[in-house]
Amino acid sequence: MAQIRKKRSLVAARKQALYRRVRASLEGEDIAECLSLTGNERADRLAEMIRDPSYAKFSFGQLCSRAGLSAIDVAYMYCEVKKSVGMIRMARYIPDIMEQLALGAMHHLEKCHNCQGSRRVEVSVCSECGGAGEVQVKGDLGACRLLFKIFGLLPGR
């Protein structure tokens, strides 16, 4: 029977270094605000302690320990909140991007490059546009495929 190894916990000095790295890379109020948005009771407690001047003498690692959170927990919660905020901000532009994608997928008319829209080259009718002054430009096939995948008209990968 294989022997099961116990997971070794981080030694105190190394644990403190991890807390210091997390704390050094984030602003105190920014951490507190993000933690408050998680809906996690321990995170709310840590956010309160970060904002409370009576806890100013405690290191970030000590505050996390008192709240029952690891540095990795705090980093993960912070990242999740920031990702959510980014998704919300990004979502504002989705309708415009989808419209641009649809327009790029469509065929459209452009002024003829040969006659510059004048319908004639020197004295004869433009051979490129047939005297129309415009030529049809095909839409972007990649944009068309992507648009069809979005709407379920093509199977996605």
Polypeptide structure, described:
- With 157 residues, this protein is mainly α.
- It has 2 domains: 12-89, no CATH class; 94-150, no CATH class.
- The protein has helices at 12-25, 28-36, 41-51, 60-67, 71-91, 94-105, 141-150; strands spanning 108-111, 120-121, 124-125, 134-137.
- β2 (120-121) and β3 form a beta hairpin.
- α6 packs across α7 (141-150).
- It is rod-shaped and about 90 Å long.
- The two termini are 43 Å apart.
- The model has no long low-confidence stretch (mean pLDDT 86).
Q: SSE order in H/E notation?
A: HHHHHHEEEEH
Low-confidence parts lasting 5 or more residues at pLDDT below 50? Answer: none
Major β-sheet profile: 2 strands, antiparallel
Radius of gyration: 30 Å
SS strand fraction = 5-15%
Number of helices: 7
The tally of domains stands at 2
Helix amount, in percent?
Answer: 40-55%
Mean pLDDT equals 86
Q: How many β-strand stretches?
A: 4
The separation of the N and C termini measures: 43 Å
| Global outline | rod-shaped
Give the class from helix and strand content and strand pairing: mainly alpha
Q: What can be said about this structure in brief?
A:
Helices cover 54% and strands 8% of the residues. It is mostly helical and 157 residues long.
Helix-strand blueprint:
Layout lengths: L11 H14 L2 H9 L4 H11 L8 H8 L3 H21 L2 H12 L2 E4 L8 E2 L2 E2 L8 E4 L3 H10 L7
Antiparallel strand pairs: 1-4, 2-3
Helix pairs in contact: 1-5, 2-3, 3-4, 6-7
